[in-house]
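[audit] Reproducing an earlier prediction to check determinism. Same input, same settings, fresh worker. If the tokens differ from the archived copy the diff job will pick it up downstream; this log only records the rerun itself.
[audit] input (315 residues):
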Amino acid sequence: MGKIAFMFPGQGSQTVGMGKSLADADNTVKSYFDQADEKLNFSLSNLIFEGPQEELTLTTNAQPALLTTSIAILEFFKQSGIKPDYVAGHSLGEYTALVAAGAISFEDGVYAVRKRGEYMEEAVPNGEGTMAAVLGLDRDTLKAVTDEVTNGGNSVQLANLNCPGQIVISGSKQGVEIASVKAKDAGAKRVMPLVVSGPFHSELMKPAAEKFRNILEEIQVNDAEIPVIANVTAAELTSADEIKEKLIQQLYSPVLWEDSVQKMISLGVDTFIEIGPGKVLSGLVKKIDKNVKIFAVSDQETCSAVIESLKEETQ
């Protein structure tokens, strides 16, 4: 067997009740939800387990909720003894990856992403920015479209390069609308507006990035014990100073997810394990390379199944 990568989902994967069955069954798992409640001074765990979904989906809640749930699931999965050679996360998931890699403590991670969510919400007034998924257009053609619209006075950029033929654009409401029409004219199969609270990973997030710099000075950031594949560069990241800089840039730069997966494959990874709620990243990896092994761990049942499958591979 080749190398193993753990990957952690980003915003959009949150669901009411995620992690609850594991927390009920395992005190170590439950302790992470308790620590998050204590750190944030409110019952995040109650919101995660009971909802409502609308409140859980708010950026300021979804970010710490996903990090907490993913790390709790990771702790349960760690009992299997399976260790990653690399870790990566999609957008918010990069913070989970950094906690998993020992670069940031769990409590600091929960606090940092809560503040990150607040600053992202504040950066652009509600309704002024948005995002859209563009299907069936290559990145160079789409970048030419967004550059043209931005140069015309309506800000819009590539935000998530998820997999071949699936790219998310982000920016001002008008910029995204104009770029969506132009993308279809350039050959896009479909353009789907996303239900989001802001223009994430666009230039409009620069005010949030500047505020967030102070948070990264407040918390302890260490060198990573496991290489983290950075969203911004799709390259290995271990140095504490570089981690901080890349996290600031990540707020207003595109998430190079397709490139990150290709990088891990080039480094010898042939087994990808998504840890956290949902299977969004597993689906993207499948579209990037059908030859790698892909697993998703979200509860006791999936955890046992993955351990069993990997044991069979090594026998």
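[audit] rerun output stored. Observation attached for the diff report: The mean pLDDT is 96.
[audit] end
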